[in-house]
Amino acid sequence: MANFMKPTNRLKARYVQLIGGLVVFVFLVSLLAGKVITDSQRALQLEYDQSIAKLQITQSIEGNLTQVLFRGRGYYLFQNESDLEKIYEHLQALKLDMEELKALPLATEQRLLVEELELFHERYVTEILPESLRYVQEGDMEGIRRLSEGGVTILANRLVASMGEIQYRERVELLSITQRIFANARYLNVLISFFGLFAIVALVLLLGRILRSVIMPIEELYRGMRSIASGEEVQLEYSQREDEIGELSRAFQDMSVIIREKETAMQQQNKELLVQQEEMRTQQKKLKSYLLDIENINKALDQSAAVAITDAKGTILQVNRQFEQNTGYTAEEIIGKPARMLQSGQHGPAYYQQLWKTISSGGAWRGEFKNRRKDGTYFWENSTIVPYLNESGIPYQYIKIGIDITEMKNIQEQLAISLNETKRTTDMLENYNNFSHNLTLTFDREEFFELVFTYLKRNYEFDKGVIWNVTDQMYKSKGMSQPFVKEMIQRDHSELTHKLQEEKQFSILREALDQEAGVADEAILANDLYLAIFNTEDNIAAIVALTRIGRRFSHEEMTELNGLMRQLSIAYGRILIYQEVENERILNETIIDHVNEGIQFIAKNGVMLQYNMPLIDMMRMQEVLKEEERTMEVWLTHLLEKALEREQLEDFIRESLRSESRRGRSMRFTMENPGIKHIELYASGVYTNNEKTGTIFVYRDITREFEVDQMKSDLVNTVSHELRTPLSSVLGFTEMLLGKAVKPERQRVYLETIHKEAKRLTVLINDFLDLQRMETGNLLYEYKSLGINEVIMDTIMRFSHDAEHNLFFIDEAPRVRVRADRDRMIQVMTNLLSNSIKFSPKGGDIRIRITNEGDLVKVAVKDYGIGIPSEHMPDLFKKFKRIDNTETRKIGGTGLGLAIVKEIVEAHGGKIWAESVEGEGTEFFFTLRLEEDQKEDGKRPSLHSGPKVLLVEDDSALVLLLSEELKSQGFQVIHHGKVESAFNESQNTPLAGMVVDLKLENPGDGWELIARLRASEKTASMPIIVSTGTEPGAVPYADLGIEDYLVKPYPPSKLTETLLRVLEDREERHGVIALPDPSLEARPDAAEEEMDEAETEEAGRTSAQDHL
Amino acid sequence: MKRILVAEDEVTLRMLIVDMLESLDVEVEVAEDGKEALDRILKNPYDLVVLDYMMPHLTGIDVLDRIPTAVRNAFVVVMLTAKTQTKDREDAYARGVDYFMPKPFSPMELFDLVEDILYG
After folding, report:
1. Which contacts of A762-767 are long-range, i.e. CB under 8 A and separated by 24 or more positions?
2. Three-class SS of residue A1025?
3. Beta partners for A386?
4. Which residues of A touch B106 (CB under 8 A)?
């Protein structure tokens, strides 16, 4: 803060320069003026002097001239020699005067005059005078007269007159000089005045400057100081200046800051000082009052206290009257004696040593003495001993002030005795009160035992003790080891309880056991006291056993304990009842917590008093439990924020709380997140003594029921829609036919549509009823042993009219039999196949494949159609869950097909599932359990490995017949009903041979297929056996490379024979092994075979006849 | 010539309606599902739309919801539906259906209604 920069523009230097310059200037001007004035003065003086000198000289010349003339005349007349001398003298003087005059500066006429005078003088001296003298001597008066008339006198007179002229002129000159002197003096005056004026102006300017630069800042500083003095903040405007004033201002400012700080500190100090002063004053007052007190005390002391003064060794030096009275000794007797002669022997030497130690080290000692009087009696004295200390702090005297407290001491002793007794009583009372209070507070048996035992320990000292519950083994003990106590409790106490039941309590005196008596030598008695706590039925609930060793329980104690036990019985009974109630409450709570409904009891003021855990879980009200006060606002807010119908719910709850009606009310509301929950809320008032005390709310999660309802309602809607649509067509077209003139060809279309839609309606109704029966378990299945291959083949054939789709069958399972309902199995296959067709709207292959998987047979139906979006997969088998798609919609369907399939398969103990890739196709799988005896038969090898034979035939019965025959010989059979798909198969699959029916359904027939096969490089030499209904006639079989032909009907074995022969032939010729391994041959049981054959033969015949 | 759109996914019903409307001097277009119906309505002006409720992709009501008011005001909607409950009917009216024809419906009635709407 301090700014001690060196002033760069110093005032001192500036003013020294300024004033110095002024002084020099004045000095120089003065000097110059002096010189001018002096010079002019001197010139005037000179002129003056010359003028005066000229005046004098001329006067002198005039005088001398006159004298000369005068004396000449006298001499002339009287020849007085003295005159002559005088003439010479004057002439001489004249000569000097002239010389003198000549030395002076002269005007020209003067000079001429002087020269004339000199000439005169010369003539006079040389001519006139001697002539005259001669005349005189001759006496020639005439000559003299002539001489004088000769002009001498005139000349002289004229000279004298000239001299006067000069004098006049000089006088004029003198006057001018005087005037000039005066003028000079005036001029000087003006100059001096002017100079003085200048000096004054310069001085004024200088002073002004000093005023501005020094005095004003100083004034400002002064004002600043005043400001500081009056405690204001100061900012000086000159503090920025770089000179002494600036420095001073900054120093001043710094100073002001320091002063301010100092001032604050001073003020603080001042305050403290004031406080100290006040304190001092108070102390002074106190001291004064102390002094007064001390005086009073002194007075009082003399009245009441026994004072003694001893020297450093304890010899009594002085005592007062009271001392004499107290001790019985007179002052004379006791002075000079040692103080210890008063000792009573009551206090031990240590007591006195302590005393001396205290006082000899300069401390005051206060205590009580029992002293002995002169007469030998004792008295108590409350004494204070204070040492008098010398300058070095060593005691040289002691003063003892003692007050007789003998009487007080006696009273005190008595008081102490009664006080002790009172204390014990109050302690006991307090203990008891505390205990009793705690007892009423406890509802816990454990705590009760603890309290009781602690109370007993505190109030009835005993060495060993135990309290235990007789029904369970709860106990508290003292002075006994745990195993001992446990063992003791478990002992048979029937005798003890019996006795206690009778006597309530009893005491036994016995000799203490060794371990009880400890190290004592003589026999010690032990006192056992038995007490009992009774329950409300007056049966013993708990037993207390207390043992005192070496002491007995007093009669009073026993009476007290007896009373206590009665009280404890009541308290214990209360606890037992409480526990029973509590257990019941817990049980109720548990029950309430374990119902499915959320239950909530709301008091009249809206506070949630009771709730169960299901409520918290259901309504997710965990937050409410964290709240301390479950007021209306708290729980209602938490509840409402979960509900979708907040307003209605709030209205319902508030109305239920308000309502005085005894009828329950209910509403439904919805919760969301996570998922939707439907809650049914039931509210009912709770009344005690006809007054409503609160409301019970019961929350029931009806989501499941709600969903079932919803599903039912949805189903009704859907069924209604599904039924109404075909019905619309039937009724609509019928109406058209009846009401309008319709062209005949149109009539047919309408009738066909009506027929189709009516059929569809029938299917739908059948499906729906089927499903309904299946779901309700009302559908009876007719389980029979069934060849599943045959069922599949049969179903495939039902779709053979479909020109757009190529259904082909890969039969990789030997003739497997299952127990199934044939019609239902056909229904399954039909539904699956129509489904696949539906899902391949653009036509294409549908592959049916049957394989063995352990004791299961797995049927797979695969299409290469549009596939199913993955999100629809889970709903695939649900009712009416058609994939909503225009393409599939075109094909129609009831939306129940897959649900029915699932029901049937599952009713047969099988499983059904599907795999699909959107855009690539779908494959449905289902499994069925093989018949028992087949399973026992064990491993029926799957025919994955046998040579493959492609069977191209559109008669399902024949296909099945031939297929079984071929499989029985170890061939794998692939069946196609159409030229196109058969050809494709032949190009992609390595085949051992083909069996081709010539008469196939359009497009194309067997001939065309054979031609194409031969045209293809892959199948150019494929063994082909033709199966035909017509005689070969003139057909060039051999040309087409056809191995053989069979005319229907032919026994199936003929086909295998032919095939085997052809293949053997080939093997021999080309070494191509295309024969099946006979070891893999799997033939069914003979019995089955018979039945089978009967069936298949029949089938074969019918189909054969169809074609023939 | 009046233009009618028949939006019905069932091919037989479509045929029924179209044939029925034949004797009226109207231009009939068909839509096979909700999406197609919406596309056509947004592109072409119609005097009347026979709208099935239950259609793939969009229901009839969905279609109505997606039509700007200006377009919607230009034609009359006759809704065909199997939903016959009063609630459904009220809902349909609320969503902008002008006439409601429960399935199975009488083609003659529909004919009379259409005729009445277009010329009556």
Report:
1. A763/A894, A764/A722, A764/A723, A764/A726, A764/A894, A764/A896, A765/A723, A767/A894, A767/A896, A767/A897, A767/A900
2. strand
3. A399
4. 731-732, 735
- Mean pLDDT confidence for A360-370: 85
β-sheet with A365-372: strand ranges across:
A316-319, A306-311, A395-404, A378-389, A365-372
Residue type, A515: Q
Rounded CA separation B34/B18 (Å):
18
pLDDT tens sequence across A26-63: 888 888 888 888 888 888 888 888 888 888 888 888 88
Is A729 in contact with B12 (Cβ distance < 8 A)?
A: yes
Instruction: Please give, rounded to a whole number of angstroms, the shortest distance from the CA of B46 to a CA of chain A.
Output: 23
pLDDT tens for each residue of A799-846: 877 778 888 888 877 767 899 999 999 999 999 998 888 888 888 889
For A382, the token pair is: 């409350």
d(CA A922, CA A925) in angstroms, rounded, equals: 10
Q: Which stretches of chain B drop beneath a pLDDT of 50?
A: none
Distances (CA, A) of A43 to A167, A187, A338: 21, 16, 128
pLDDT per residue as tens digits for the range A632-666: 888 988 888 888 888 999 999 999 998 888 888 99
Q: What angle do CA A818, A962, A788 make, to 5 degrees?
A: 15
Alpha-carbon distance B45 to nearest alpha carbon in chain A (angstroms): 24
Using the 8-state DSSP alphabet, how is residue A5 labeled? P
- CA A252 to chain centroid, in Å, comes to 53
> E strands along A948-1102, which residues?
948-952, 972-976, 993-997, 1024-1028, 1042-1047
* Cβ atoms of A379 and A404 closer than 8 Å: yes
DSSP-assigned letters across all residues of A942-989? -TTSSPEEEEE-S-HHHHHHHHHHHHHTT-EEEEE-SHHHHHHHHHHS
CA of B67, closest CA in chain A: separation in Å? 21
Q: How many CA atoms lie within 13 Å of A1075's alpha carbon, on the beta-carbon side?
A: 17
Q: Which residues are paired to A949 by β-bridges?
A: A973, A993
Q: At a CB cut-off of 8 Å and minimum separation 6, what does A97 contact?
A: A57, A60, A61, A64
- B45 near A CB under 8 A: no
3 state DSSP class of A371? strand
| DSSP letters spanning A621-650 | -HHHHHSS---HHHHHHHHHTTBSSHHHHH
Identify the sign of the CA torsion A139, A142, A147, A152. positive
CA distances for A698 relative to A161, A668, A683, A692, angstroms = 176, 12, 6, 17
| Torsion B61-B62-B67-B68 (CA) sign | positive
Record: contact A733-B16, CB cut-off 8 A? yes
What amino acid occupies position A987?
Q
Give the distance from CA A12 to its chain's centroid: 69
Amino acid, res. A986: S
Place of tokens 């200390």: A389
Residues of chain B in contact with residue A726, where contact means CB-CB under 8 angstroms, are 12
Residue A293 makes CB contacts below 8 A (sequence gap 6+) with none
C-alpha to C-alpha distance for A1028 and A1047, rounded to whole angstroms: 5
DSSP-based three-state secondary structure for B104: coil
Determine the Cα–Cα distance for residues A614 and A620; give it in Å rounded to an integer. Answer: 9
CA dist A208 and A202 (Å) reads 10
| Whole-angstrom distance, CA of residue A940 vs CA of residue A926 | 19
Scan residues 49-88 of B and list those with Cβ closer than 8 Å to A. Answer: 54, 56-57, 80, 82-84
For A313, which DSSP code? T
Phi, psi (5° rounding) for residue A982? -65, -45
- Give strand pairing partners of A808: A847, A976
Query: d(Cα A508, Cα A503) in Å, to the nearest integer?
Result: 13
Unique residue bearing structure tokens 């030598």: A521
Return all residues near A663 (Cβ < 8 A) that are at least 6 apart: none
User: Which residue is associated with the tokens 């029925």?
Assistant: B20
